[in-house]
Task: structure prediction
Amino acid sequence: MKNLHPAIRIRLLLQFISSISTMAILPYIIIYFAGEVGKAVTGILFLCVMLASVLGSLLGGVVSDRVGRRKVILLAELFVFIGYIGAAAVNTTVGAYPYITFLFFIIIQFSTGVVNPAYQALIIDVSSPEERKMIYTYAYWVRNLGIAIGSMIGAFFFFSHLVLILLSAALVSLLSILMTKVFIKETYQPNVQWQKRGQTIQMYKDYLEILRHKFFILFILASVLIVAVEEQLTNYIGIRLTEQLPNPVPIITAIPMELDGMNLLGFLKTENTLLVVTLTFVVITVIKKWKERVTFLVGLLLFFTGYTVLSFTTIPMLLIFAMFLASIGEMMYIPMQQALLANTVPDHARSTYMSLYGVSIFLGVSAAGVVVIVSEWLPSLVITGVIGFMGGLSFILFARLVSIEKKQGERNISNLKSTYRY
Result:
């Protein structure tokens, strides 16, 4: 950790703090809106917020590559700060104004979408390919620890201390602004000619150029499928467990502990978080001598196997074991996936590429929702087949990508040797 660039160390600290504040709010804000305006309207508001985040990401990616990371981070975090202050102001003891709160969350999510590609590009700017696997391992662990702490804080205090929770999130954004302003220097100097290409139509051309990058597009498709599978836990799998296990069942016959479907879902999510927080560095230590390609593919195999089993069984111990497999696989593949992505994007368009990667997460979540819709008409065995197919296709695509990367690396080494030979 000490050998990492100061900007990366600061970013990991801020990521930890912001994960806590964000997860103390986002999982519970939907419940807040549902209670204030009803479920149907909440669904529409949620889609609008998601769309704002996607549009922000697309804009932030291009702008960050045009003007640099630091300016985008400072401006976007300022609007996040304003959004949380505004949301807190309209939810005082005087009264609650859900639609005005919604407008402030549009600002928050749009600005968060803008800043995320800049943060991701900043890490790539100041890191070497050799460092990235460990950097993304730290980032993965920090994020999950923050999620665990933030979720617990939100569960106990969101509804009883809503204004205080929102003000705390505002302070986190203010801290991000101050630490970025004082401690982080600009990590990317855009080409002058690149800056002059400022027309809106050029932004579309930039994205069209990326869409011709076949390696990256295959990476995006494989990543969409991963997210679509992972999101089944809180979508199809969660619904199925709740419906098929309405009454408590024993986990193990010898232990007097019973859980219904809803309890099991919460147990599985907690299991995943606890395993990631406690075992990430243990797993990394055990597999450190493995080839990266093997680690990546074995991790994917374990992850998809676990989720496929979760999609059809209702036996508690089998569910718990399947989540254990999926969690171990997740710890193995995520740092490799992020490093592969970072090594793929060109220097002059890092933030733009990262913004499209952010959109892939939205597409994966949307695909998970489609699975829930079609599950109304298809047998559960067919849905399991669909989930297994998505996992298998993602595995094949990633296997192809790491093979291409390996061949490209060998070709570069061969060319380097030829250069020195002459």
Remarks:
- Confidence is low (pLDDT under 50) at residues 412-422.
- The CA atoms of residues 231 and 368 lie 6 Å apart.
- The longest helix spans residues 380-421.
- The radius of gyration is 22 Å.
